[in-house]
Amino acid sequence: MADTTHSGDSPTDEPRRTSVTKRGGGDPATRGRTTIADGVVEKIAGLAARDVVGVHAMGSGISRTFGAVRDRVPGGGGGKSSVTRGVKAEVGEVQTALDLEIVVDYGVSIADVTGDVRENVIAAVERMTGLEVVEVNIAVSDVKLPDEEDEEPESRLQ
Question: In angstroms, rounded to a whole number, what is the distance separating the alpha carbons of residues 70 and 82?
Answer without folding.
Answer: 9
